[in-house]
Amino acid sequence: MLLPMPNPPVPPDSTAPVHVIGAGPGGLAVAAALAQRGIRSVVVEKSPDVGASWRGHYEGLRLHTTRRWSALPGLSIPRSAGRWVSRGDFVRYLEEYARHHRLDLAAGVEVFRMERAEGEDGWLLTATGGRRLRASAVVVATGFNHTPRLPDWPGADGFDGELLHARSYREPSPYAGRDVLVVGVGNTGAEIAAELSGSGTGRVWLSVRTPPHILRRATLGWPSQANAILCRRLPVGLVDRAARPLARLLPDLSAQGLPRPEVGLYSRVLEGAIPVLDRGLVRAVKRRRVLPVAAVESFDGPRVLLADGTSLTPDVVIAATGYRRGLEPLVGHLGLLDGEGRPLVHGRETHPAAPDLYFTGYSNPISGTLRELGRDAPRIAGAIASAAADRRGTARRR
Ligand SMILES: Cc1cc2nc3c(=O)[nH]c(=O)nc-3n(C[C@H](O)[C@H](O)[C@H](O)COP(=O)(O)OP(=O)(O)OC[C@H]3O[C@@H](n4cnc5c(N)ncnc54)[C@H](O)[C@@H]3O)c2cc1C
Q: What are phi and psi of 363, to 5 degrees?
């Protein structure tokens, strides 16, 4: 895959480099696109290396998106990684991506806050060790899945068992012989429950507030992601109707306590719920190795109280309850976040109150985040190049 060649390349307008905050796929893709245009950037990463989120995910994770549609601009994922790339291979790909594009990485440096540089263009970043970093432009790529979100369950502090967020789950062996309640049935909760159920864990319950749409990852070789890419600009009602037969390719699990959802698939996506791509959950529920139960309401000593009035006494509760963006300390004081903590602007757009400041990766598109991060990167680099050219033009006219 090649980046579109800019014409003509635009050099940086200032001695201060562009700063990209975060060396996940989003930040690396933007830095590569900037390099392609001859624009100097530094990728500032709080962890010791690139791809920190992927290093921390559970070991059995594989991409749900195809190898081709998960590659970032300018470097393919090797064929040897297979169609559904493993977590480990994706981490190696990100390492290779940074090397291949000769990206300038400042690892082990966390950016805490940013301010407009007084009396000049650009930004001043406050970072680890009291560093003050001067940036001509900033791209914030700190991740949609930044801060694990644990619901504020009454009594959870006094729970007798072990309570952890899915971010801390690595693999099933520590749970052998123990009863586990997985809370939340997004892709992560579904996969962890299915993995535990086949690995010597005691009973495995799956707490479901709203039944998810469940689809095959691929049907006769055709990936669900391809449907999502084709459908994402179509009217919501039309996609909701078109998706119904796809869901029926999998068995109905109503008798096992996991009914088909009432709200259509695309309508749920717009509410923030991406469909579950099945990697073993359906079979595990069908065979009653994973037992769906109602939503968690509260905790009482060893008991977990559920919304239908029943209770369970699991040894372990794994909360697959999602993440927050965690952008408040960094940019909250600039008035750039909506009520849900998401940036008001995205991709190549900038907010009038914050020129030269870009955000990438703060949506959860049905077509695949990695694909969209790769598409946003050259657009952001283009916007940074145009803004730099405009400033040079203004300076010359003065
Ligand atoms: C379990 C899971 C599976 C997923 N599977 C897929 C999939 O199959 N296909 C797909 O398309 N998408 C998938 N996604 C969604 C998305 O592609 C990934 O979350 C992806 O990693 C997002 O990339 P990012 O660069 O935006 O964020 P991240 O990968 O989270 O990278 C953000 C980086 O910023 C760093 N950082 C954060 N704050 C600071 C700071 N203040 N200063 C310095 N550094 C900072 C972090 O350490 C991290 O390295 C998945 C997400 C999850 C959680």
A: -135, 170
